[in-house]
Amino acid sequence: MFLTEEQLAARLKSGALDRVYLVYGDDGYMKRVYADRIVNAVLGDDSLRFFNFHEYEEDNTPFADIFADADNLPVMSERTCLLVKDYPLSGLSAKEFEAFVQSLKNVPETAVIVFAFLTVDFTRNQYDYPKWQNVIKAFGETGTAAELTHRTGNRLVRMLVKGAKDRGAELSAADAQYLIDVTGEDTGHLLNEIGKLCAYADGQAVTREMIDRVVTKTVEASVFDISDAILRGDPDEALAAAFELLRRKVPIQSIIGALSSAYVNLYRLVTAAGDGKRYADFAETFGYKSSYGVQKAAPYARNRTPARAREAIEILLEADVITKSRAFDPETLLTELVCRLAAV
């Protein structure tokens, strides 16, 4: 079977178990969660887990030995469980892989083997990808291949709202989306931020002001706050935000690059507005429908001209050239950059 997260969760909830599992995908946090869930579904509160649970992690155990361990009968339990982490399956020769697949088919009913790729997202590895496709196919045809990808959209919003409720706090869907916009879509990071916010809220509703005060924003979101302050005519706030990024040891080249992206968005918005295009049309055309930065820049597009927006981009280009051509002091360069952009 080839399952999504929702399908795997439903199958585990029903009590159905397969003999072999492949856990893979691009969400490291969810892969760890479901690897543990499968192990717990197999063993439950087994008091003899020491005898019935085997874990293999970067110890170069030959796969033949792993499958041999699976042949051992459980001790006063229905099944044993074997958790194999990040096994280098793509390094097997064609003959070895054929033997591996045959071993998958011969796993006894008294064992469950979970191959979990917790730190490897092999779908992104172009060199090994054909081999990994064969791995996915082998597990899907023999047992279960579960791809765990980053939650997005409404599913991520619901997870955060529920996470806040479970911690005794209230979080609106709109503020949950704002949290995603400013911190990114990494599940583990978002749940850490929810924990911090709920502790700070201390039983009260989580507000947007709390989010701005407590969470660690992505560089892109922080830089868009800098551009927002500049466009509002508040260079002091912009400088404070810029210096905070330097304190976080964000390279100045990254700050200038993200600022350039913000002003390119503004230029596009100004041009679109001049052509009579609605924001919704623009967002759809450029794929910016849920972009935090574009939404922040949109209100300022109505009273700007393309010439001024181009001038700002040229200023940013000059600053970028300086970072690549001669020695400079980051604080001085950022101060000059913010002041010049504010003047524009």
Radius of gyration, in angstroms, nearest whole number: 26 Å
CATH fold naming of the largest domain: Rossmann fold
Counted by DSSP, the helix tally is 17
CATH architecture of the largest domain: 3-Layer(aba) Sandwich
Distance between the termini: 59 Å
Strand percentage lies at: 5-15%
What low-confidence regions span 5 or more consecutive residues with pLDDT below 50?
Answer: none
Biggest sheet architecture: 6 strands, parallel
Note down, in words, how this protein is organized:
The chain has 344 residues and is of the alpha/beta class. It has three domains: 146 residues, P-loop containing nucleotide triphosphate hydrolases (Rossmann fold, 3-Layer(aba) Sandwich); 62 residues, Orthogonal Bundle (Helicase, Ruva Protein, domain 3), CATH 1.10.8; 125 residues, Zinc Finger, Delta Prime, domain 3, CATH 1.20.272.10. It is 60% helix and 8% strand. The protein is built from 17 helices and six strands. The chain has a six-stranded parallel β-sheet with strand order 1-6-2-5-4-3, with helices on both faces. Helix 5 links the parallel strand 4 and strand 5. It is elongated, with a radius of gyration of 26 Å.
